[in-house]
Amino acid sequence: MSRPNTSPAFTKTKIVAENRRARFEYFIEATYEAGIALQGTEVKSLRGGIGNIADSYAEVNDTQMFLVNCNIPEFSHGNRFNHAPKRPRQLLLRAREITKLHGLVKRGGYTLVPLSIYFNDKNRAKVEIALAKGKKLHDKRETEKTKDWNREKSRLMKDRG
């Protein structure tokens, strides 16, 4: 079931791909857990720990949501039935959530960014989608400053013991 998550993490047993740059580039408003429609060889590639979502995004077409530009390489032992590595993959959410997200993206200036692909406790492939707003350059600088200060502060506290 995919609902907005208030807790920091879903039940992730094995993280396959993570988009670390997204938290630096965007303000994350809400996160959603979505299923992903995969072919057999795609699942085998993901179980091998291969996948990349660095440049991918989610878009809404009519009443369906797709993950675009996600790279899941071909399965090494696959034959002629192997999948296309960068095909759009359908995300599985409830219709009400899709229409809500479509409205926010259309009028609110938000974008849908995948944060991670993982397997949950039932061994199903899931995608963590974030409703996000882009950061300006000064926001990115501020984020970097606070991150550096927190790192320095922890070093100072560690030295003081």
In short:
This protein is of the alpha+beta class. The chain contains 4 helices and 7 strands.
Span between termini:
46 Å
Bin the helical content.
Answer: 25-40%
**How many β-strands, per DSSP?**
7
Give the averaged pLDDT, no decimals: 86
What is the highest CATH level, the class?
Mainly Beta
Query: What would you say the CATH architecture is?
Result: Beta Barrel
Overall, the morphology is: globular
Order of helices and strands: EHEHEEEHEEH
Strand order of the largest sheet: 1-6-7-2-5-4-3
Strand content: 25-35%
Whole-number total of structural domains:
1
| CATH topological fold name | Small Protein B, Chain: A
The fourth-level CATH homologous superfamily is Small protein B
Structural class: alpha+beta
Radius of gyration: 18 Å
In DSSP terms (H or I, runs of 4 or more residues), the helix count works out at 4
Characteristics:
7 strands, globular, Small Protein B, Chain: A, alpha+beta, 161 residues
What report would you give on this structure?
This protein is of the alpha+beta class and 161 residues long. The protein has one domain: Small protein B (Small Protein B, Chain: A). It is built from four helices and seven strands; from the N terminus they run βαβαβββαββα. A seven-stranded antiparallel beta sheet has the order 1-6-7-2-5-4-3. β6 and β7 form a beta hairpin. The longest helix has 24 residues. The radius of gyration is 18 Å and the shape is globular.
